[in-house]
């Protein structure tokens, strides 16, 4: 027997949803539909966007209202300089009550943890990545890079990094199992 998906109206009946959100839901219905598989289809024409009201700000004093805490994963591929701004963003989000995981290279694990954020290893070596980028600064790699087989190696590394980014969103732990 197939599981049924909750409808937007069934979700709206939840008593934890403040009354102010019900009026915003009516406005949202003019531009969005919820499909049976849980996908939200948006019709964002300029005319429809004009109908959409600004969502109400959360108010903690409302009975039954709870602050929204998002599980946030920030992916950073690159150097220490690429990572540093996202540590600041992550710390700010964490201070607002959101659990924050910074998914990046293993070389930066200590830096992430020292700043009080959760770490996840996405793989890849930032030094090798930067060396490849310096050697191949243009849109197309040099011919000697093609001959050396570096492109295939770089593609495998990027495949591992992309897989690590996905795993950081769905797995527990820090991604270092098997490293």
UniProtKB/TrEMBL annotation:
Glycosyltransferase family 28 N-terminal domain location: 72-143
BP-aspect Gene Ontology terms: carbohydrate metabolic process
A GO term, aspect molecular function: hexosyltransferase activity
Transmembrane intervals: none
Entry superkingdom: Eukaryota
Pfam families reported for this sequence: Glyco_transf_28 (PF03033)
Residues in the signal sequence: none
Name of protein: Glycosyltransferase family 28 N-terminal domain-containing protein
Phylogenetic placement of the source organism: Eukaryota, Fungi, Dikarya, Ascomycota, Pezizomycotina
């Amino acid at each position: 027997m197939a599981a049924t998906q909750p409808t937007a109206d069934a979700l709206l009946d939840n008593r934890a949803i403040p009354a102010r959100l019900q009026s915003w839901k009516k406005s949202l219905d003019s531009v969005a539909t919820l499909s049976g598989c849980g996908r939200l289809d948006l019709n964002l024409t300029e005319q429809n966007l004009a109908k959409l009201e600004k969502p109400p700000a959360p108010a903690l004093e409302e009975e039954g209202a709870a602050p929204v805490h998002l599980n946030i994963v920030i992916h950073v591929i690159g150097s220490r300089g690429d990572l540093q701004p996202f540590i600041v963003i992550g710390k700010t989000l964490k201070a607002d009550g959101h659990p924050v995981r910074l998914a990046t290279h293993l070389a930066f694990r200590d830096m992430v943890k020292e700043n009080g954020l959760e770490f996840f290893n996405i793989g890849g070596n930032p030094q090798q990545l930067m060396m490849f980028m310096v050697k191949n600064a243009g849109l197309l790699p040099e011919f000697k890079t093609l001959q050396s087989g570096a492109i295939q190696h770089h593609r495998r590394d990027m495949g591992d990094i992309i897989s690590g980014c996905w795993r950081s969103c769905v797995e527990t732990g820090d991604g270092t199992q098997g490293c």
